[in-house]
Amino acid sequence: MSTLQTSKVNSPVGEKDLLFLVSMLDKEDKIEFVKEFREDFEKQIEEKKLSKTAYYKFLNGYAPSDERILEIIEVDEEAKEWIIAKVKEKAEKALEIIAALEGEE
User: Does the reported pTM lie above 0.85?
Assistant: First the structure.
């Protein structure tokens, strides 16, 4: 294994990496995330990090920003695992489609 590969394996996942994963979610996924992790958003209201108006908009179909979701997954391990599972599901589906398209060529 080269030095470059070793350093990549040992490097921790940073904020930009998590933000990239969040960016892979579509609007419906983000709305589902809000409903799934309501308590975390309610906690942000208590901490004055989120307005009640914004929270109710999220519950009624407005998708939160990637940065807002990032704030949640940085403090809630279960939320981070949910994001990982959702992105993994999307990636597997994308690979299936790519393989089928390549098979047609």
Answer: no
